[in-house]
């Protein structure tokens, strides 16, 4: 089947998901991000790479934080950034997703950064661009439903490589609400593609999707068992609305059993790093002592995120 | 109008006939098979050399979208599609707007269909008023108006007490109740089979148990009430096993599968192909293989198109938001042939699943070619090919997972009550 | 094919030209890849006080849209304060002037240097921009045309040599 992310030359045309991308492309993105980290240290934090290009942040679901990181990345590449909060504008007027896309194409968009509540929405846009022969317009998935958040997955891989150098000897644990997490799916796809020999997921059965083991991970329900001797702990965010209901009794109980505390972290390797995609729920997923502790690399993740997004944008812009 | 269909190979599964025989039609009926009656002078002769002559196909589920959804399709457009597909009898699910819960509506639908003079329609009435699962519909009145059975379409009854009573009441008259096995409050927020594909794509899942839980309930209630059941659109190997066991037990249960579930699995969703958003969901390849095998052994009685025309606006949206369903009436014969070929079945056995078997479920005399029978006939070229494109589909709905496929078989003529209503262009 | 001059000879000539103009305020910045090797040796030979800077001008190239990013990007590294510094930009070969233009743009994103000079091993002519080298080891008498690339190569033992490669 044709992979809609790649062009006829096997280069990245869109970034929609990490699942199905070859290892060489993942590595190339991480390698390209490397020199971009240095730009933040300059007096003038701007490169002329995307000068004159228009990047539309098309957010059908509100997320100020994610939108901001894409905006910073695009602006550091000298692109013109237009933010569209579609959640509150055109859908109310009966305009379809593809109507909106057609309209923005008519405004000479060069790139779309798409956040949508439905899994697969960026694929629909990419397919539409393909069918209408607009091959010079690129799509970056900034999170679709439960499906994927590829730039988050990439910045997580960048962070792991930064601290651990090599992927091939690592044990990595992903903790929390995997069922609803697009971040977890992108992390699993990237970790398995990059050759991490053991990827674990830890959480209650209610938050584990069916056949998760077929994605190449080991499923644990007990924290101390799952965290034993791991090199990397990746915490997931638990959405407020899921803390009580049919999936979980309460945020407190979740913290008691699956919250990352110094005691639970102690069974991991002493040099294990702790990651979180943010924003954190302190006292639900993670204890403040861990979040602010020496093993946490949560703020470097944010910094690396800018460089990774710059790398993705500049690679797409040149393919 | 007297028609002589000459030189064709006649296949009539109802009578286990498969031989070179001419067919003679007069006054809308079959008046001769093999030899012409005395004094027969044909006004039209159809040369069927190298072609198959079989009963017009019988489809257990064709949504014509009237009344209520005329923007999606009309009787006119969908009847043309049926003719192009060689389908001459169709059962119509009650999920129109308003639903088929009033005798007047059913009469109007039958009247409209009769005036068009294309396929014969067999309305399936709503089991409960407005399909709400609260009050019983006037079943006896609806049967007088033309309904052949009762169903909830895709809206399961939440209150088991009501379902129990509905089955009891239907059993009072011996009406068959057609039920789609959907648990009303389990997996109802899902959009794809709950398995590896849905997990990978981050699509909310519909577990197989949503089908089996419903079947356990239906079968137990059938035991209690003695109601005759027809299970529509089986999707899983597990569900199939339950129906098979119920049949073995001696319960009066029949079942069908759709062309989509017979040929596709959740793998075909690929990168969020909204054409594969169906109800029930496409399940695993293992399930599909089990359905294919069961249709061959006869555990599944009939194959249907589950024809559901849907417009582009409802499909060109993200997968989860897409309207479930696909157009299919024109693909019923080609997809039956494709299945038959892959299972090395004779044409006779293949055609049985789309002619006499579904006709018996409806309780109609359609689906067979005997002397004196209504002359509903499909003539097709088994060696021909049907290419599925938006342009060639006559249905107003252009959305099907089979777009772009080349399928075996090509309908050449469709005859309804002795009149040629479709001739291959 | 013209006889290529010996890199070590040119290197010596370059040092001779540059030495009188180097002081405590001078900083060297080499352009990846050949210019960085050259700058490394100049830095040592001239006893430059400020640590050596290196830049990859890929981000600033004017043919980015046509050629895309180079697959092996290097991290630019300016380990001294650019503000008010006297900078000598070092490259192996001066040709169209576009690389120098990109390098100048990049330098100024680190701050405002007092002055910038250009040192190259070879000037092959055929300029497309108004740029000239203050220090130059050798100037080719006859243009090579667009069919050949002239570049500095580094052997395993660290010795540098010039080579012509068909474009």
Mean pLDDT of chain B: 97
Q: Give the overall shape of chain B.
A: globular
Largest sheet of chain A: 5 strands, parallel
Terminal-residue CA separation of chain B: 21 Å
CATH architecture of chain B: Alpha-Beta Barrel
The percent range for helix content of chain B is: 25-40%
Helices and strands of chain A, in N-to-C order?
HEHEHEHEHEHEEHEHHEHH
- Compute the number of strand runs of chain B: 20
Total individual domains of chain A = 2
Quick one: which chains have the greatest interface?
A: A-B, 28 and 23 residues
Q: Structural class of the helix and strand makeup of chain B?
A: alpha/beta
At the fourth level of CATH, the homologous superfamily of the largest domain in chain A is Aspartate/ornithine carbamoyltransferase
Secondary-structure blueprint of this entry?
The complex is a heterotrimer of chains A (319), B (425) and C (167).
Chain A: H1 23-36, E1 54-59, H2 64-76, E2 80-85, H3 97-106, E3 111-116, H4 121-131, E4 138-144, H5 150-164, E5 171-175, H6 182-193, E6 198-202, E7 218-220, H7 223-227, E8 232-235, H8 251-258, H9 262-265, E9 273-275, H10 288-291, H11 298-318
Parallel strand pairs in A: 1-2, 1-3, 3-4, 5-6, 5-8, 6-7, 8-9
Chain B: E1 2-6, E2 9-12, E3 17-20, E4 23-26, E5 29-33, E6 44-47, E7 52-55, E8 57-59, H1 75-84, E9 87-92, H2 103-116, E10 120-126, H3 139-145, E11 149-151, H4 160-173, E12 176-179, E13 192-193, H5 196-201, E14 205-206, H6 209-225, E15 228-231, H7 237-249, E16 253-258, H8 259-263, H9 285-297, E17 302-304, H10 312-315, H11 332-342, H12 347-352, H13 356-362, E18 377-387, E19 406-416, E20 419-423
Parallel strand pairs in B: 1-6, 2-7, 8-9, 9-10, 10-11, 11-12, 12-15, 13-14, 15-16, 16-17
Antiparallel strand pairs in B: 1-4, 2-3, 4-5, 7-18, 18-19, 19-20
Chain C: H1 7-18, E1 26-31, H2 34-45, E2 53-55, H3 64-67, E3 86-94, H4 98-108, E4 115-123, E5 135-139, E6 148-154, E7 160-166
Parallel strand pairs in C: 1-2, 1-3, 3-4, 4-5
Antiparallel strand pairs in C: 6-7
GO molecular function (chain A): amino acid binding; aspartate carbamoyltransferase activity
Binding site for carbamoyl phosphate (chain A): 65-66, 115, 149, 152, 278-279
GO cellular component, one term (chain A): cytosol
């Amino acid at each position: 089947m044709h992979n809609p992310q790649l062009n006829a030359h096997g280069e990245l045309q869109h970034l929609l998901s990490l699942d199905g991308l070859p290892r060489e492309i993942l590595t190339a993105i991480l390698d390209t991000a490397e020199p971009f980290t240095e730009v933040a240290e300059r007096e003038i934090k701007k490169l002329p790479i995307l000068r004159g290009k228009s990047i539309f942040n098309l957010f059908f679901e509100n997320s100020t934080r994610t939108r901001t990181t894409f905006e910073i990345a695009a602006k550091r590449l000298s692109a013109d950034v237009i933010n569209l909060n579609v959640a509150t504008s055109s859908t109310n007027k009966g305009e379809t997703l593809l109507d909106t896309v057609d309209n923005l194409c008519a405004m000479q968009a060069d790139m779309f950064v798409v956040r949508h509540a439905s899994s697969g929405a960026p694929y629909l846009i990419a397919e539409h661009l393909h069918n209408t022969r607009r091959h010079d317009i690129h799509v970056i998935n900034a999170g679709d439903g439960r499906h994927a958040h590829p730039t988050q997955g990439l910045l997580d891989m960048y962070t792991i490589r930064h601290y651990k150098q090599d992927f091939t000897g690592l044990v990595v644990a992903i903790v929390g609400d995997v069922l609803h997490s697009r971040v977890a799916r992108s992390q699993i796809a990237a970790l398995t593609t990059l050759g991490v020999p053991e990827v674990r997921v830890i959480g209650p059965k209610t938050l584990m999707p069916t056949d998760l083991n077929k994605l190449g991970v080991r499923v644990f329900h007990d924290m101390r068992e799952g965290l034993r001797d791991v090199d990397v702990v990746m915490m997931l965010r638990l959405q407020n609305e899921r803390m009580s209901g049919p999936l979980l009794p309460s945020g407190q109980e979740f913290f008691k059993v699956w919250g990352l505390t110094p005691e639970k972290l102690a069974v991991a390797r002493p040099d294990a790093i702790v990651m979180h995609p943010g924003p954190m729920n302190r006292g639900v997923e993670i204890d403040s002592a861990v979040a602010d502790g020496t093993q946490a690399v949560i703020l470097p993740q944010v910094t690396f995120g800018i460089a990774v997004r710059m790398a993705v944008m500049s690679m797409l812009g040149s393919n | 109008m007297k028609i002589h269909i000459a030189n064709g190979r006649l296949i009539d599964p109802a009578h286990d006939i498969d031989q070179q025989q001419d067919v003679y039609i007069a006054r809308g009926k079959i008046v001769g098979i093999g030899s012409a009656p005395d004094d027969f002078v044909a006004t039209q002769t159809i040369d069927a050399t190298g072609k198959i002559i079989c009963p017009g196909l019988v489809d257990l589920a064709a949504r014509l979208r009237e009344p209520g959804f005329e923007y999606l399709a009309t009787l006119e457009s969908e009847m043309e599609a049926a003719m192009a597909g060689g389908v001459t009898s169709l059962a119509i699910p009650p999920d129109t707007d308003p639903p088929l819960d009033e005798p007047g509506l059913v009469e109007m639908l039958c009247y409209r269909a009769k005036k068009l003079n294309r396929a014969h329609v067999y309305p399936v009435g709503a089991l409960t008023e407005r399909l709400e699962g609260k009050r019983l519909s006037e079943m006896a009145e609806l049967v007088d108006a033309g309904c052949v059975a009762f169903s909830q379409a895709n809206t399961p009854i939440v209150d088991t007490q009501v379902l129990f009573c509905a089955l009891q009441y239907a059993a009072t008259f011996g009406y068959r109740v057609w039920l789609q096995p959907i648990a009303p409050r389990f997996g109802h927020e899902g959009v794809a089979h709950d398995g590896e594909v849905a997990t990978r794509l981050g699509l909310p899942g519909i577990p197989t148990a949503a089908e089996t839980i419903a079947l356990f309930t239906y079968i137990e209630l059938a035991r209690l009430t003695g109601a005759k059941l027809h299970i529509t659109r089986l999707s899983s190997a597990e569900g199939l096993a339950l129906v098979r066991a119920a049949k073995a037990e001696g319960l009066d249960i029949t079942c069908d599968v759709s062309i989509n579930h017979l040929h596709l699995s959740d793998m075909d969703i690929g990168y969020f192909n909204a054409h594969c958003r169906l109800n029930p969901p496409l399940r695993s390849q293992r399930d599909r293989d089990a359905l294919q095998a069961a249709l061959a052994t006869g555990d599944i009685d009939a194959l249907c198109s589950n024809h559901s025309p849907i417009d582009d606006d409802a499909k060109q949206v993200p997968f989860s938001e897409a309207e479930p369903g696909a157009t299919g009436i024109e693909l019923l014969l080609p997809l039956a042939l494709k299945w038959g070929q892959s299972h090395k079945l004779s044409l006779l056995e293949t055609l049985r699943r789309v002619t006499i078997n579904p006709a018996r479920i409806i309780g109609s005399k359609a689906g067979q070619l005997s002397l004196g029978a209504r002359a509903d006939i499909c003539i097709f070229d088994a060696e021909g090919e049907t290419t599925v494109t938006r342009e060639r589909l006559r249905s107003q709905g252009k959305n099907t997972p089979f777009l772009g496929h080349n399928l075996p078989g090509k309908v050449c003529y469709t005859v309804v009550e002795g009149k040629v209503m479709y001739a291959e262009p | 094919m013209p006889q290529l001059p010996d890199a070590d000879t040119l290197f010596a000539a370059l040092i001779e030209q540059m030495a009188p103009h180097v002081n405590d305020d001078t900083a060297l910045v080499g352009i990846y890849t050949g210019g960085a090797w050259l700058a490394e040796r100049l830095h040592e030979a001239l006893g430059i006080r400020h640590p050596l800077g290196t830049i990859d001008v890929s981000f600033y190239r004017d043919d980015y849209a046509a050629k895309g990013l180079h697959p092996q990007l290097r991290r630019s590294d300016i380990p001294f304060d650019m503000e008010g510094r006297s900078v000598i930009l070092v490259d192996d070969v001066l040709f169209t002037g576009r690389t120098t233009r990109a390098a100048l743009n990049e330098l100024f994103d680190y701050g405002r240097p007092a002055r910038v000079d250009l040192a190259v091993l070879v000037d092959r002519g055929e300029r497309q921009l108004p740029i000239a080298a203050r220090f130059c080891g050798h100037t080719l008498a006859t243009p090579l045309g667009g069919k050949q690339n002239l570049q500095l190569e580094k052997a395993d033992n660290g010795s540098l040599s010039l080579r012509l490669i068909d474009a």
